[in-house]
What we know:
This protein is an alpha/beta fold.
Amino acid sequence: MEMHDFDVIIIGGGIAGASLGAEIAAERRTLIVEAEDHCGYHSTGRSAAFFLESYGGPAVADLTIASGNFLDQPPANFSERGFLGRRGAVHLSDNGWPELPSSVATHRIERDELEAMIPGIRPRWTRALFEPACADIDVAALHAAYLRQFKRAGGEVRCGSGLQRAAFGDGRWSVSLADGSALESPVLVNAGGAWADRVAEACGVEPLGFEPKRRTMVQLRVGRSGLKDLPLIDDAAGTFYFKGEGEGSVWLSPHDEIPTDPCDAAPDEIDIAIAIDRFEAAVDWPVERVERSWAGLRTFAPDRLPVYGFDLRVPGFFWCAGQGGFGIQTSPAAAKLAAAVLLRRDPDPMVAHIDAATFSPARFD
Length: 365
Ligand SMILES: Cc1cc2nc3c(=O)[nH]c(=O)nc-3n(C[C@H](O)[C@H](O)[C@H](O)COP(=O)(O)OP(=O)(O)OC[C@H]3O[C@@H](n4cnc5c(N)ncnc54)[C@H](O)[C@@H]3O)c2cc1C
């Protein structure tokens, strides 16, 4: 059996593993291990692809806002073009004014303005907040740019065989993969997404209680045109969102959160039906057909904040998990913050104002 030595082994090649890897590969000999045949097959490849500062509460908003400039105008050696396409978001309410974190710029919209902005909006929606900074993210390009930076800095990626078990001894992790190969490194990063607790268990580390939750997306063809550049439209109470995809189609979600064991998630017919029902209660646009649908898992820690940091009980075990529904939009700041903790160095200016303790696994002890 061949044995391979690294400084850091990252389990999981989604946006979390790729972005953290890209931040550390120049300083540590790093390997990303991805169980699937290609990186990004699970949550990272299934997102709704938007950047929404108000999403996830104030601590997540700090990470999102800190990531905005990088996503919009990345350094030239990272990408020749930005990853954001400005769209704006409308948070609808049929009651009072929606409440959002005070750090997020918004303005109020009354019914007449709403009608001009979204022709066909149902009468029940009387108020809304407009969030101008909301944007689409080119997720595939961002993920590819992180993997490119990782490899350029000397990082290696190994797909097609996952971690089966690992044990710590003599200052090192001995890692066995499903294909029988063996690896060693002093630091093991758990970026296993929905499998974060399963990865921990396979390493003899106590799980933190992550919950994967299924979310459904539907691409609907509707009898309207000119939808492509509409804002993201959501119910501030959290029962649906949709955004224009093509001239006559939308991406729609029923905002579902179905607790699910980690798996290759697929949409359920009932969730697609619920999505269409809520869409029809939002606008009078005739639904023509479902063009496609998919589902993915959003994985949350018990307090719904991500977890970045070394486990307190087991040496060299680093958590990079619980990115919920915000793992793409927060990835630049989260990767810089996690890299500073992992390398025990001063944080990058992008995240110098953010307290890493907020996201430390120590909060669960
Ligand atoms: C429908 C939907 C809409 C979303 N919309 C948005 C959005 O608009 N904006 C946003 O910012 N975020 C959004 N998200 C959330 C975002 O997609 C996730 O937070 C993010 O992709 C999580 O990245 P990850 O790398 O942690 O997980 P993943 O991309 O799932 O990567 C984890 C990887 O670990 C691998 N793995 C697991 N176990 C092992 C093992 N034992 N050995 C080796 N590899 C292993 C898996 O194969 C997987 O590839 C959405 C998610 C969903 C599902």
